[in-house]
Design brief:
This protein is mostly beta strands and 181 residues long. The chain has one domain. 12% of the residues lie in helices and 41% in strands. It contains 1 helix and 12 strands, in the order αββββββββββββ. Strands 4, 5, 6, 7, 10, 11 and 12 form a 7-stranded antiparallel β-sheet that branches. A 5-stranded antiparallel β-sheet has the order 1-2-3-9-8, with no helix packed on it. The longest helix is centred in the N-terminal third of the chain and has 21 residues.
Length: 181
């Protein structure tokens, strides 16, 4: 009986260690879905994934998945980092296959913002890359080292003179808070 208990405890410990090693240590991320088909355009947002610090992501990573990423699609992500202040504190703007406008400090959704010096900010939005998504990586230092973050996304495209807009999760709304990993 003693040998069986010893082997069982050893096996249980081995399983616990293997499970802990396989799980991402201190990873905090969330994938949010958005209504499909609510905008008849390439910019129809399907999902937004927020990663708030993992062993391989030392800042905040936001992935905006849309119907079809095309050159000229415009994106803005507002980032809320202060639970006591209901609005955004930062935003990032870009246009697929052309330009990124950097990280901006804002007080409201309508605030044009002031430029934040943020070495390491990376935005990739390329219609020729695999997957129809834009990826934004922001070093934690550029966001005043927040513990929790939440985001609001706006994608815009002008088709045949018509301005198409898709907000995720809704106009000037935020997804749930994602804690720091």
């Amino acid at each position: 009986m003693y040998a069986v208990t010893r082997i069982s405890l050893g096996a249980a410990l081995l399983v616990a260690v293997a499970t802990a090693a396989a799980a991402p240590a201190s990873a905090q991320w969330q994938r949010f879905t958005d209504q499909r088909g609510d905008v008849a355009s390439s910019i129809d947002v399907h999902s937004v994934r927020v990663v708030n610090g993992t062993p391989d992501v030392h800042g905040v990573k936001i992935v905006v998945q849309q119907k079809t990423l095309l050159a000229g699609d415009q994106g803005t992500v507002w980032i809320d980092t202060d639970r006591a202040n209901p609005g955004p504190e930062f935003k990032v703007d870009w246009i697929a296959n052309t330009d990124a406008f950097g990280l901006l400090k804002v007080d409201t959704f309508k605030d044009p913002g002031t430029i934040v010096n943020c070495p390491g900010l990376r935005i990739r939005s390329d219609e020729y890359a695999a997957g129809d998504h834009s990826t934004i990586r922001i070093p934690r230092s550029g966001l005043d080292r927040p513990s929790d973050v939440r985001v609001s996304v706006k994608m815009t495209r002008t088709d045949a003179g018509h301005n198409r807009v898709d907000w995720a999760p809704g106009t000037r709304g935020f997804y749930a808070w994602v804690g720091r990993g």
